[in-house]
Specification:
By secondary structure, the chain is of the alpha+beta class. Helices cover about 40% and strands about 15% of the residues. It folds into four domains: about 5-100, no CATH class; about 115-190, no CATH class; about 215-285 and about 350-360, Lipocalin; about 290-345. The protein is built from nine helices and ten strands.
Amino acid sequence: MTPTKFLIGQMFVVFFIVVLASWTGTQYAAHELGFQNALGPVWFNVGGTQVYVPWRLYQWWIAYEGYAPDVFFQAGLIAAAGGLLSIVVAIIGSLWRARQAKTVTTYGSSRWATVKDISQAGLFCDKGLVLGQKKGRYIRHDGPEHVMCFAPTRSGKGVGLVIPTLLSWTGSALIHDIKGENWQLTAGWRGTFSHVILFNPTDSNSSKFNPLMGVRKGRHEVRDVQHILIPQDSRLIGKYDSEIMEGQGRILVIWQRIIMPNGASILIDNLPAADTEGYAGLSDKTDYHTSRLFKVAALSTLLNVGTELAFNNTGSDLARAFERGTQDTIGRTGQKIVDRNLNIKPTNIIRPGWSVRVLVSKDIILRPYGA
């Protein structure tokens, strides 16, 4: 409930308490005075009991206090008690609203969890990943969600979270332990109920894994090394940028996935293509359409020369005007032909079987083919 809604409800409750106390005092005074006719008109009847409007007590008090002072004193106490109770309710409501003002959610409602919040979230459990400690109790997470911890170096992530988890978590775990501290402190206990393996390529005493054991010795040795992860006849699927600029001699290609011979597909997420020397893009043959440009230029020259020779040494003004108009028209036509052919972009050609490379800039998980 928002503080504004609570304030409206608080005002309603205070008003209701005041009216109810006055009404109770009015009915008490009427009962003690025997519901006499001098008390005035009745508002309504309930089960034979006459009910007056709540504020009649104060009218009777002014008019009849001298006849029954004790009755009106008791009725006044009842009304005053209601007033005091309404003051107490108003103070409690104000204190609550003051506390709520400290948790303004204008810029969001995120906050540190309280003990009640942690308990309601079910994090005070006896198993799961250790997240911390609160009031002497471990906070653990035993759900399917991911857990990520951010903290500076030497801030206690290992001794506060990792090691307590490894000393209480009975499920499988894969630990990236560069210093070997977690192995030394927890491997003994975990070895009592699970199979514990240390893999350190720089330690001759660690467990070993050699992916080249899958290579057959003999005439297939080199081929097996090359194709142990990506076999022959696999296909690279990608797309290229069809926007070719003036003078561009390379095609920009990105690879999107690898399709194995058995139909399995590996997404490689837009890795750039390169040639065998490592330069980005593919380059084989580029046709700049030079011969076509020379042919068009020669044609434009011939048209201009032809019109010049055809109308040379004409004497009359009409003939000279016709000569100039024809020469201008043919000249503009030839220029347009040249301009159009100058705007033809080069054509890049990659022949089938051209060697390419895939520049890998991120981690890719590859399973041995057929595994």
